[in-house]
Amino acid sequence: MTAIEKRLLVNKIVLGLSSLSALIGIGFLFWILYVLVANGIDAINWNIFVFEGAPPGYEESGLRQALIGQLLLVGVATVVGVPLGILAGTYLSEYGQKSKLAEIIRDISDIMMSAPSIVIGSFVYAIIVLPMGHFSGWAGVVALAIIMIPIILRTTDDMLQLVPSTLREAAFALGAPKYKVIMQVVYRGAKAGVLTGVLLGIARVSGETAPLLFTSFNDNFLNYDLNEPMASLTVTMFNYATSPYEEWQKMGWAAAFILSMFILSLNILGRLILLKKKGR
Amino acid sequence: MATVIDIPSEKAIEVNNFSFTYAGASSPNLKNISMPIAKNAVTALIGPSGCGKTTLLRSFNRMHDLYPGNRYDGKIVFEGRNIVESKEDLINLRIKIGMIFQKPTAFPMSIFDNIAYGMRLQGLKNKTELADRVEKALRDAAIWDEVKERLRHDANGLSGGQQQRLCIARAIAVEPDVLLFDEPTSALDPISTRGIEKLVMELRDRVTIIIVTHNMQQAARVSDYTGFMYLGELIELNKTDEMFVTPAEKLTQEYISGKFG
Fold it and tell me: Which ipTM score applies to this complex?
């Protein structure tokens, strides 16, 4: 075998192995999606959207309380977490820059991003649930917001830093004060990236179960009051899927399907926004 | 040792024993520079890379203040004030001394909003007046005919040369007294470059222009006065015609004849 033949052979082997690994990875993704769709589509019906949780055996049983609870929890967490995350990211990129404080905040936020979410749940349990004496939607909101903030903070920081400094200088050179440079020029330039970060942050917390288990807990009935325990798709899914009743298990599949589709569309939307921005 | 000629006409700015030190530098990056800037004329700053010409240019509108730790010493006198003193109102200064950058810096907004940006900052809200002044600025920057049909389009859709003229229009829309050009054509093709140079020559009747350029021919073509800088010092300020024919300093002679740089 000549040197060239040997090189070509090694090349083929490496190409084959890496392609195979990629296929296995993506294969699992499609397998998961297939199982979800196969079991979930079947379980989806109109009842799920109009009825609340009921004991097994009842015809009029649904996930309405969990769907609305999920939207409330994630929605309010977004309202709390997004401004904090964006403002903190703005501080890092525009004011703190390379200062020691800013670097420390970046490191801490990276650590927080990889912190197990159940730990954040127990933290919120200790500071909110215990003093209040009962589970509540607010506790769930706080837990989700805490998980969301470092994600949005880091993407905002990164995206604002991608805005060329010459653009800032040009605005300053026209006599703009700093807050106007940030609001009118830097934010505009980073709009698509920051929005993507926000969507990914929402997608990330939408799938959280552990921090909700002992904060917002669960409720079988529809409830709009965040002072009370509140149902979520994830916790409901956990309860239903681990129950011995077939109807409940089916409902668990439905919850899994709806949740996955929601998160999948958020992710796809996020990517589309970035793609559109690049294509321009 | 430096040759700095006196300027017979009115002066817009006087630089007096000016030194500048970047954050963390052990010795000044600009050393004891003294030179007059003629009013309503073009002064070019030339010199090899790292000679400090852009550093000097960015001192005139205090751009260095955007980054912490930089230090100004000495005087740059404009309208009777030493503008490098810390009490200087930078917003007001930058309205009067505009800047065009090396790369076009179109803001991520429409062409109209780009031009209106500086005027809106100053509180101009009247829509008719705004539209009139936007048109005038675009006409003055010789780009009106190319963009008049698409004023509401994103400015980033323009070509590099068009964007640079847009930036000039944006800068002259606020009617500054002085315009600083930092190698405005180094990112442009020859045709766009000629357009910008023509514009610089048209503007000099009503604006004082200081232009940093890498290109000696450009300095010779557009400027009335030329300053040659080397290693943070001003070696020679002379009439452009004289500088390129009979320079007073040996170093200038060597640089313009291509012996180094």
Answer: 0.91
